[in-house]
Amino acid sequence: QWTTASIVEEQIGRIREQIGEDGRAICGLSGGVDSAVAAALVQRAIGDRLTCVFVDHGLLRRGERAQVERDFVAATGVNLVTVDARERFLDALAGVTDPEQKRKIIGREFIRVFEQAERDLKAEGDYRFLVQGTLYPDVVESGGGTGAANIKSHHNVGGLPEDLQFELVEPLRLLFKDEVRRVGLELGLPETIVHRQPFPGPGLGIRIIGEVTADRLETLRAADAIAREELTAAGLDRDIWQCPVVLLADVRSVGVQGDGRTYGHPVVLRPVSSEDAMTADWTRLPYDVLERISTRITNEVPEVNRVVLDVTSKPPGTIEWE
Ligand code: XMP
């Protein structure tokens, strides 16, 4: 029987063995629990030979960059470099609407940015290892497990370029989400990080159905921030697994506001309950909470004039729309 402490101890041993006495590693922080726990594990194993790189790809939710720079660094004292790559990602995604294309582009750009960061860090030593918070379900759904079909190429598994110049360190590869959270607590990470709801690596890029643009990102960020605020205020954060907000950027519908006609976009609320993201059910949110979210979004986000609720379980729907 494996205890969380024994998982931690075993992983630290494996990491030390893989990286060696004086190897150096880079870890990309996404803002999510997976990369945070992976980084904290590796930091336990190799200390300040780990440098974390946080890429602001412009596909983040409101306040996320500050949260990583403040909370995670405060909890771990880890070396952190933030790279502002917002323009680069927007340029690479211009004109792209296909979900798999988006995922592959975002995954590729992520690695390129890390490689650039590695070159920048070369002055300090040779960073040969790249830490990733890949979980067991990511491995299975990207076709890395036995007999699994390729459903989506998760950006941290399927989208790696062929010329990758790092050796991967993936200490969470055999774990499910609940185990990762227990490991995080065991490592002393704060609840705000450990119980953060999952957020996909490709970020808001796969929650805009249609082309990703700076304006559309602003719209989605505003709607998403409202939904999250209201869910938190209602005390529902621990009851739902996550609640993607999806912008149907190529869909418009007619509405009326004040004295005027509107012709805006719908957003979809996708609240789901799940144990491990492999399957999920749609969460029966209280009507009054749904109403507050809908009223606020349509009042406060001018581009959005309709809020709809996704009542599809997984399967047949996936959690994200792309
Ligand atoms: P799906 O949409 O496949 O999502 O039902 C399952 C869970 O995985 C998250 N997700 C991702 N996480 N990189 C990630 O790190 C990705 O490319 C990615 N795509 C989806 C999703 O938010 C959900 O929790």
TrEMBL record:
One of its GO terms (molecular function) is GMP synthase (glutamine-hydrolyzing) activity. It catalyses: XMP + L-glutamine + ATP + H2O = GMP + L-glutamate + AMP + diphosphate + 2 H(+). Residues 2-196 form the GMPS ATP-PPase domain. Its EC number is 6.3.5.2. Pathway: Purine metabolism; GMP biosynthesis; GMP from XMP (L-Gln route): step 1/1. The keyword ATP-binding applies. The keyword ATP-binding applies. ATP binds at residues 30-36. Keywords: ATP-binding, Glutamine amidotransferase, GMP biosynthesis, Ligase, Nucleotide-binding, Purine biosynthesis. Transmembrane segments: none annotated. It comes from the Bacteria. It is an enzyme of class 6 (ligase). Catalyzes the synthesis of GMP from XMP. Homodimer. This is GMP synthase [glutamine-hydrolyzing]. It comes from Amycolatopsis thermalba. The gene is guaA. The chain holds residues 198 to 519 of 519 of the full protein.
